[in-house]
Specification:
- With 311 residues, the chain is an alpha/beta fold.
- The chain is 46% helix and 16% strand.
- The protein has eleven helices and six strands.
- It has a six-stranded mixed sheet with strand order 2-1-3-4-5-6, with helices on both faces.
- Helix 2 (44-55) packs parallel to helix 7 (174-202) and helix 4 (114-124) runs parallel beside helix 6 (150-164).
- The longest helix is centred in the middle third of the chain and has 29 residues, at 174-202.
- The relative contact order is 0.08.
Length: 311
């Protein structure tokens, strides 16, 4: 039996706690959103804070190297080490948001300085992928007609995307700004969990596995029969009773494919005379069978090499 100070037990408890804290919803409380006070000067500021509070993320109002900027960092839950001390881990997330109001953006575009502005922001926020938020561009252009052309604007934004790998958002309302910050924060919070899931299911051993409802999990040979049954049911007109009838004669997909190959010319009608049990009961005198048409569909499903084949 484990003792309280057993290092293996502590390691197991830490791993279990880490996995729980990675899950969506739970991970939000470990993400810290660091907001420059200038970012909140406009009316959208209150909505940004409200959305982050609703999401469960922590936020800090701290001057940033570049005004009107948001950065992110993550903390891990405190761990109890073998010697009884508490350890805490903090690391920066490689993302940042920079906001430009419509007037500043128009001035940068007309002076051909937008690319240089973005480059300067990235230099002061190294190792972070920048998202540019342009707030109120349409409203500004309605008041100052002819201040900048659409083609000129699109060219400047394209240059920023191509040369500095910086995405952009053209937002007009306070709610849009708040929603964008909240959505980005949630995505960053869930990034480790999604990366872990992708690594897990991209491995060769569990490439058929899935945790979604209705999917069949396959590990080794376990689950192959359920997967075979699920494949049959996906074929039009194939019910659970029909799938069970086929599997009673050909218990594996490999045995069915081999039977199709051996049948040669008669392969399309190979399954025609298989009797169907009703609701798991005995074969009745009604002699209900699969029939040639459905047999042909199943045959084409597994044998046809035509990607446009219709069943």
């Amino acid at each position: 039996m484990f003792t309280v100070n057993n290092p293996d037990r502590l390691k197991l408890l830490h791993h279990t706690e880490e996995q729980r804290n990675l899950k969506p919803g739970q991970c939000n409380k470990f993400l810290h959103v660091v907001i420059d006070p200038d970012f909140l000067e406009a009316p959208h500021g209150a909505q940004v804070l409200s959305k982050l509070t609703e999401l469960g993320c922590r936020y800090e109002l701290t001057p940033q190297p570049v005004p009107c900027t948001i950065t992110f960092y993550r903390t891990m839950a405190a761990k109890l080490t073998a010697d009884g001390a508490l350890s805490d881990t903090k690391f920066d997330e490689p993302f940042a948001v920079h906001l430009l109001d419509g007037g500043t953006f128009v001035t940068s575009v007309r002076n051909r300085q937008l690319l240089a502005t973005v480059r300067s922001v990235k230099e002061q926020l190294p190792n972070r992928r920048l998202s540019l938020v342009v707030f109120g561009l349409v409203s500004y252009c309605r008041v100052h007609r002819g201040c900048v052309g659409r083609r000129e604007t699109e060219q400047a934004l394209t240059e920023v995307q191509l040369f500095e790998d910086t995405s952009h958002q053209l937002l007009e309302t306070d709610e849009q700004v708040a929603n964008f910050v909240a959505q980005l924060s949630r995505s960053i919070a869930e990034r480790p969990y999604k990366q872990q899931q992708m690594d897990k299911y991209s491995s060769e051993q569990v490439y058929l596995g899935n945790e979604k409802k209705g999917c069949v999990r396959v590990e080794g040979t376990a689950g192959l029969q359920q997967l075979y049954q699920a494949q049959l049911i996906k074929i039009p007109s194939v019910t659970l009773e029909i799938a069970e009838a086929i599997m009673s004669v050909y218990p594996t997909l490999n045995s069915l494919l081999q039977a199709f190959r051996k049948a040669d010319q008669e392969a399309p009608t190979l399954l025609s005379n298989i009797s169907i049990r009703r609701a798991g009961g005995p074969i009745t005198t009604s002699n209900r069978r699969i029939g040639p048409e459905l047999s042909r569909k199943i045959y084409l499903m597994y044998v046809s090499m035509n990607p446009k084949q219709e069943l």
